[in-house]
Amino acid sequence: MPSLPRVDRIKPIFTSAKALNYGWRFTDYLKIPAFNGVSRYIPQVHRITIRFCKQSESSTGVRNFVESHLWRIGESNPSVVIYTQPVRNSIPTIRAEYGNGKVIQYNAKNMSEKEIHKDFVQMLSRGGNPVVKLESRQNSITPSVQGSWTPITWLPTSSNVVPLPQKIAVVKKTEVSATEYFSEKT
Predict the structure, then answer these.
(1) Which ranges of 60-112 would DSSP assign to H, the alpha helix?
(2) What distance in Å separates the CA atoms of residue 139 and residue 115, rounded to the nearest whole number?
(3) What is the DSSP string of 106-155?
């Protein structure tokens, strides 16, 4: 007898997933690629591939962008390889490949030239990391040399120094000094 899917379990899962509005985002600290900027700044985007159709109506914005803006952007970003692939009867897409191995792809169907330019510049300036809410605007790779701050860091020393009692501070005297003791022995 063939197994049948349990519809009574699929429906609640589907409806709960449909209700997710992704109003939440992951949180993380600011991260930079290792040693980026030590000798010079290295852009994290390596390749951008633009696929479009030469004839379809949905690729009009991409074709106009390639004709008018792509040459200037390519000259101003010599470290980025930009490919254009005219593929017949395909949906226009812009795909960026980053140094950390991430690939981000935008669907450019029926987008205007300005929208494509905005997305293209965003791809050039991104690092390939996912967009997250930052816990802090700054982060350090190495901890502080001075140590972490505590509430008693800048207190005056008079508040944490106690005077010694007098009986400990008094110098003990003996009747015979060491010099006299050794001179008597010899």
Answers:
(1) 60-68, 70-76
(2) 33
(3) EE-TT--HHHHHHHHHHHHH--SSPP-EES-S---SS--SS----TTTT-
**Is residue 18 within a helix (H) or strand (E), and if so which, with residue range?**
helix 7-19
> What is the three-class DSSP state of 7?
helix
Is the CB of residue 79 less than 8 Å from the CB of residue 43?
Answer: yes
CA angle 111, 106, 79 (to 5 degrees): 110
SS3 174: coil
Q: Output the CATH code of domain 48-137.
A: 3.40.30.10
**Which residues does 45 contact at the CB level (< 8 Å), separation at least 6?**
80, 96, 97, 98, 99, 123, 124, 126, 128
**Where do the domains of the chain lie?**
48-137
Q: Count CB-CB contacts under 10 A for residue 176.
A: 8
pTM, rounded to two decimals: 0.59
Q: What is the pLDDT of residues 149-168, one digit of tens each?
A: 788 777 887 777 777 777 77
